């Protein structure tokens, strides 16, 4: 009984204001200070956009045969991807031009082939930290988008009370927007409901696979990145990114975020994790849960 209460407290205390007030001063070395909100970016939005576009296109081409129902409605886009697929086949020394005969890689292999690294969830190196995220293959240079924080996006006035109970996966953006990255319970049901609500015919507006063990977007594990400690310094940083309106509709199926309210006219808020230094194979990712904006 006491053990269960302790686990619930450990999951909740980071959102309990009195606890934060008492403990922030004691943990100055695990705080991240930002002079103002406009400076809370390690890389430019254009770099984030280009990275997501690059990996999502690679995932789309790798899964080309499953996209027929989408491409039938987008003949111009279909021609573009057929050209990209032909180039990819030549690189892979595939003699046949028939896309149905292409070798299909796992999403983790696509990530490695495209960006030069792969990541996965595994038991954290921190005692009692549970699951963590590791670079399993390759090398990640400083200033690289290495992961994404999935979940339902809530504005400040929207109901999230019941989803928040015992939920350690709620990320608060600088402007008060919340992202619920819990892949279980009520949070899971809400995300799936919103995702299917927003589907336009064959076009999926978001990725549901992060709720399962079989990820379509291998970057969508950012909610499992653990907080840094005095012994394990942060090597990645959260960066907010608003998906522009011109984001390709056929690639939205890989975005691991969905808005709670259907009538939102603003851009979809995403959060990516960007490397603060070079990260080698076998290293665990550590972020900083506390960002102070002066």
UniProtKB/TrEMBL annotation:
UniProt-listed Gene3D superfamilies: SET domain (2.170.270.10)
Origin superkingdom: Eukaryota
Gene designation per UniProt: SETD9
SET domain sequence ranges: 115-290
Protein name (record): SET domain containing 9
